[in-house]
Amino acid sequence: MLWIPLTIAAAFLQNLRSLLQRRLTGALSVNGAAYVRFCFALPFAWLYLWALTGGAAPSAPGAGFWGYVIAGSLGQMFASACLMAAFTLRSFAVGTALSKTEAVQTALLGLLVLGDRLAPLAWVGVGVSFVGVLLLMTGVSVRDALRHPRGLALGLLAGAGLAVAAVGFRGAALALPEGSAALRAAVTLAVALALQTLVMGLYLRLREPGELSRIAGAWRAGLAVGACGAAASVAWFTAMTLEASALVRALGQVELLFALLASGWVFRERVRPRELVGVVTLVAGILLLL
Question: Are the CB atoms for 9 and 235 separated by under 8 Å?
Answer without folding.
Answer: yes
